Amino acid sequence: MIRQIFFPVLLLGVLSACSGARQERRAVAVTIPPVQAWAEELAGGRFDVVCAVPDGGNPESYDLPPSMMARLASCAAYFSCGYLGFERTWLEKSAQNNPQMEVVDLSDGVELMYGTHHHTHAEAEPESDAALPDPHLWCSPRRARLMLRNMYDALCRLDTAGRTLYTENYRRLDARMACLDSTLAARSAAYAGAAFAIYHPTLTYWAADYGLRQLALEPEGKSPSPQHLRQMVDSARRAGVKVVFIQREFDPKQAETFAREAGCRTEIINPLSPEWESEIMRIADALDRK
Ligand SMILES: [Zn+2]
Fold first, then answer.
1. CA separation (Å) from 286 to 181, 192, 203?
2. Who is most buried in 14, 104, 122, 197, counting CB within 10 A?
3. Ligand 1 mean position, distance from CA 120 (Å)
C-alpha cells in the first residue's frame, strides 16, 4: 500500500520539477540578427533569444511594434551593440519601464571610431554626430570577438549554473571568429591600402582592421546629390575602386549610377544577415575579385 501511494507522489514531484524548470527558462534580447545567432549559440538553449529588429529592418531607425515591446519587457537582459540609432532611442525608455532588465553594452572595452558615421534618428540627436562613435562594430570579426567576450561574461553572471556550457560554446564560436579574423588579415595583405566604395559606411571597422580604405557614397546620412556623386566618382577613379557595396535595406539606384560612371561592379551585401560568418566571407570574396 505504501509503495502504491509513494509512486504517484514521486511522479508528481518529478512532473512539477519539470514544469518549474520550463518556467525558469528566461529570455535575453539583442538588437540585430547576427548578434542573435551568437547569443543562441552561446546560450545553448538555456535562454530564449529575442531579436528586436528583424532581418530586413534598419536598426538605425527602426520603430518597435507594441507586440515586440511586450516581449522585450519580459527579458532578463538586453545585449546592446552600443550605438545603433534604435538602441539609443529605445533602451532609455525601456530602462524606465523595466528597471529589472540588465542592459549589457557589448561595445564595452572595444576601441571605437568617431566622425565616420552620421546618426539619422530624429529623436536621438542630443550630441553632435562627430561626438558619437560609428556603431557597426559587429562587421569586423576582430572587434566582434570582443563583443562576444562581453556577451559570454554577462551570460555567466546571469546564470552561473550554465557556465560550463557557455564556456564550451564560447570557445568554439570564438575560435571560428579568430579564424575569420586571420583569414581576412592574410587575404587583405595582398591589397593593403586599396579602396572600395559603399553606400552606407557599414564597413568602417573592417577597413580599419584590415588595412583598406572605405569611400561612403551617403553624405551625412542623406541621399547623395548629383554633385556629391560626381565627386565620389572622381575619387573612386583616382583610388582605383573595383567594387561598390550596396546594403540590402537601401535603394540601389544611386549606387548603380555611381558604378556605371566609376567603372566598377556592384555587390549587394547584408551585414545584418543571421548567417553572419558566411556573409563576412562573401564580402571578403567580393573584395578579392578583380
Ligand atoms: Zn550606420
1. 16, 15, 13
2. 197
3. 9
Judge contact between 285 and 269, C-beta under 8 A: no
∠ CA 287-262-265, rounded to 5°: 35
Q: Is the pLDDT of residue 233 over 50?
A: yes
Q: Write down all domains in the chain, each with its CATH number in brackets.
A: 26-109+128-183 (3.40.50.1980), 192-288 (3.40.50.1980)
Give the residue among 47, 42, 96 at the shortest CA–CA distance from 69. Answer: 96
Ligand 1 centroid vs 170 CA: distance in angstroms?
A: 27
For 118-174, write each residue's pLDDT tens digit. 765 444 455 556 678 999 999 999 999 999 999 999 999 999 999 999 999 999 999
- For ligand 1, the distance from its centroid to the CA atom of residue 249, given in whole angstroms, is 11
Cβ neighbours, 10 Å, residue 198: 25
Over the stretch 38-70, which tens digit does the pLDDT of each residue have? 999 999 999 999 999 998 899 988 988 989 988
> Directed axis angle between helix 163-188 and helix 276-288, to 10°?
10
How do beta strands 26-30 and 195-198 pair?
unpaired
